[in-house]
Design goal:
This protein is an alpha+beta fold. 15% of the residues lie in helices and 42% in strands. Strands 1-5-4-3-2-8-7-6 form an 8-stranded antiparallel beta sheet, with helices on one face. The radius of gyration is 14 Å and the shape is globular.
Length: 139
């Protein structure tokens, strides 16, 4: 996971070597909580790629301390999809840091689908999760 991954001039994440962009979803609220460091909250959109979810705040400013957050799918665990009786559907989980020991605890994330559109996102995200886990098991 990474705070403020590189974004291009249009506010889209730069592609990492070997990844492909799958879809985007707007109308999201998101939160990343890191014990000892606090919560990072935003409203904006998610970019799902074959290797990560990149959460990008809507209308961020250049001097904002939190513009985007990168969640590597391969380091995600305890993930789940929640459908509360009241409120928007959301996914939640935890993610190991890319550099072990670089954070006091594993970040916890929540992504709320405030404008719907979670069906295709969930199917694609789960496919990426299972593919990455199968490939990791075969190495």
């Amino acid at each position: 996971m990474a705070l403020n991954p590189p974004l291009n001039m249009h506010g889209e994440p730069n592609r990492v070597s070997g990844e492909a962009f799958i879809l985007t979803r707007h109308g999201l609220d998101f939160e990343v909580k890191i014990e000892g460091l606090g919560k990072l909250k935003g409203k904006g959109m998610a970019y799902l790629t074959t290797s990560r979810i990149v959460l990008v705040k809507k209308d961020y400013k250049d001097n904002d301390p939190f513009k985007a957050f990168d969640i590597p799918i391969a380091y995600t665990f305890n993930e789940s999809f929640e459908q509360p009786i009241f409120g928007a559907n959301y996914i939640k989980g935890k993610c190991k840091p890319l550099v072990p020991g670089s954070l006091p605890a594993d970040p916890q994330f929540k992504i709320w689908f405030m404008e719907g559109g979670c069906g295709r996102f969930l199917k694609s995200w789960r496919y990426c999760l299972s593919t990455l886990r199968e490939n990791a098991g075969s190495n």
